[in-house]
Fold this sequence. Notes:
Elements: H1 2-76, H2 85-93, H3 96-99, E1 105-109, E2 118-120, H4 134-142, E3 146-147, E4 151-152, E5 159-168, E6 174-183, H5 191-195, E7 203-208, E8 213-217, H6 234-240, E9 245-250, E10 256-264, E11 269-276, H7 277-280, H8 282-329, H9 344-371, H10 381-398, E12 401-410, H11 413-419, H12 421-437, E13 444-449, E14 452-460, H13 463-478, E15 482-484, E16 487-489, E17 492-501, H14 510-526, E18 532-534
Parallel strand pairs: 17-18
Antiparallel strand pairs: 1-2, 1-6, 3-5, 4-5, 5-6, 7-8, 7-11, 9-10, 10-11, 12-14, 12-17, 13-14, 15-16
Helix pairs in contact: 1-8, 11-12
Amino acid sequence: xxxxxxxxxxxxxxxxxxxxxxxxxxxxxxxxxxxxxxxxxxxxxxxxxxxxxxxxxxxxxxxxxxxxxxxxxxxxxxxxxxxxxxxxxxxxxxxxxxxxxxxxxxxxxxxxxxxxxxxxxxxxxxxxxxxxxxxxxxxxxxxxxxxxxxxxxxxxxxxxxxxxxxxxxxxxxxxxxxxxxxxxxxxxxxxxxxxxxxxxxxxxxxxxxxxxxxxxxxxxxxxxxxxxxxxxxxxxxxxxxxxxxxxxxxxxxxxxxxxxxxxxxxxxxxxxxxxxxxxxxxxxxxxxxxxxxxxxxxxxxxxxxxxxxxxxxxxxxxxxxxxxxxxxxxxxxxxxxxxxxxxxxxxxxxxxxxxxxxxxxxxxxxxxxxxxxxxxxxxxxxxxxxxxxxxxxxxxxxxxxxxxxxxxxxxxxxxxxxxxxxxxxxxxxxxxxxxxxxxxxxxxxxxxxxxxxxxxxxxxxxxxxxxxxxxxxxxxxxxxxxxxxxxxxxxxxxxxxxxxxxxxxxxxxxxxxxxxxxxxxxxxxxxxxxxxxxxxxx
Length: 538
């Protein structure tokens, strides 16, 4: 009957476990794949934005470097050279370092717009007037540095940008304009944008919404060409309206793209990183697909292992029942039952064993309470008398000696009377700690009750010398004031000492030694307290 019930229970557990396993695996797989998808999407967005922001900062730094360098050159131009073209030409040509930043040329242009006062390098194709240039108009009217819109330089027919800095006299009057022209594809400037791709088919675009043109791109869009009209390219439209960061948008090819936009603040340009959504999320799709495949491949053998493991896991039920039945019948002693780990049977068995341990621990605590002082944690009278009896037996055989010190605190009763027992208890705990610090680990400090203590110094070849040394240490330690809250309390101690050697231990008991030490302590008190006395029979 019991075996049939057990088999039925096994089948039911197996069926329920299988259903729960399949349900759990399904739910875990669903949530894990969703979390994985969302986490990887978020990571991809952050990575894209970090990359674009870094490149945009790099471009901005290069533009700002050229602007700052041009301003420093403008400040160093000798004012008299503005009316001496030959000297200014020579001076400008000697600025070799900045020519690397402006390979198309640096020009000093008069306030009326031209022709140039000096230029380096000299180009025959250089325009004779710059009065109609946006950068010249802005620099000359605002008296502030100006960056041109992206343009095709007339002198070189290259996509370029012009940086202009006004040269002013001490009264703020415009003397000239210093302009530097740099091709956008200059090595170390924006040349990497043209040759870089984002992934397999992604692209970078630097645009100027203010001038409605492409500055430079890594795709087929030519430099300094018009941006598409509104409604054709959603990402460009969003960039025009102030959209920044990472988002999904429809491209001019009617394809969803992952777009990241960052600003180049010095020039008011924008850097766009554009990548097909399918290509960008391909690693995410692969990870999710691989997770589903791994889950399926692992789930099938795990289900088979589950069935075979259930039979093994249910065996402890029978073993536990057998052990408990034997204890009930009286054929087995009450003792910890054996159990496997990590299952409900083990939990029951461990709880039973834990109950047994608690009973034993409670018995041990009761024994400790019977042999230790609850206030200080020191051994009590029963414990030290028992220890003293054992030491007497031992020294009778070894021939060594021992000493017993009886300590009674001086001026302790006024502390209790004046400040209460709570302060007195705190004082006793600190005194107990100081006494323990005066003896060896093999020695015993005990509290007899009230303000009385016993110290047993065991296994000593010269017990009297050891006892006198410890007694003096205790007197010195307890003469130091004790702080209890804001109170500063000072007590003393009177100590009685009795010693015995192995040859004399046979004729004395522990109670007698304690009494002798007590007598010696009263002699110390009679002699003026705060001292020790050694017991002598007379």
